[in-house]
Amino acid sequence: MSIPDRQQAMLMNGPDAAVLAVERPVDQPGPGQVLVKVNASSLNFHDNVNLMGLIPGPLPRVPMSDGAGEVVAVGPEVDGLRVGQRVMGAFHPGWLDGPPTPQAKRELPGDSGDGWLQQYRVADAAGLVRTPDHLSDTEAATIPCAAVTAWSALVEANIGKGDVVVAQGTGGVSLFAVQLGRALGATVILTSSSDDKLKVGSDLGATHLINYRTTPDWATEVKRLTEGRGADLIVEVGGPATLAQSIRSARMGGTVAVIGVLSGFEMAPTPIPELMLNNLRVIGITVGSVRAHREVCELISSAGIKPHISHVFDWEKLAEALQVMRAGEHIGKIALTIP
Asked: Would you say residue 263 has pLDDT above 60?
């Protein structure tokens, strides 16, 4: 395909979704880089916070951490990628493998520099992951943040056949935790305030459903469902409002993976005696490495997993997509298509 000299991009100039469409030159890939024709992106809570002006970084910049598309040009010294292959960008493209370090996590598209809400983007080949063949680009664009986060939590707790996972709510990470956990052979307990949303989670593989409005003491219900044992892993997305119950839901020696702060940023009341006496492991998760991204794609491919996308918007409708997210009207993921 011919590559134009100019492209359209969405440029973030200031706080609270001050994003404008602009025309920019199409950059050419250098050594170790490829040029991607970006076809889709997806919204994460992180992007919402970014577009509220709460994440520092250079301005102006193109937002969005997630993107998927097709390689249209390859620079020198690139092995393993060729023109025509479909790829996704990693959330932390510099974190290739191993434990996290400040240096490895320094680059984050949309924060530290231009993100994926543009028609063409030059990216380091090492920070790209091949798209599973059964996924569209729109579906693939939901993987880099949400699916990798869920996978990292499952790996940290060494989840396998017969284990029990609690997933909170029906956002992207939680529904991926349902699907991936089931693919690993785990029993998944899903919580939500909506029976309709819980039905979606059930269709995706959740074994037990808890409506925390009608059952506010959901930790006790988790213990009942597990015959008093508790869950091997709680995927904690709520933050201060839910952390104490997550700790009470875990089995002795279990893991609470803290991956979100949907209820705010204040300090959470923590039941220290239970944490100590039950030898619990509380670990923070910020997505994962490029290797983790590749590993979860292998499971997604082998299990034939498709992400649940409740809303798809044209990229020019970013403000409307944000309204849906902020109102909590979505289930799973919100995707953006890029022409």
From this structure: no
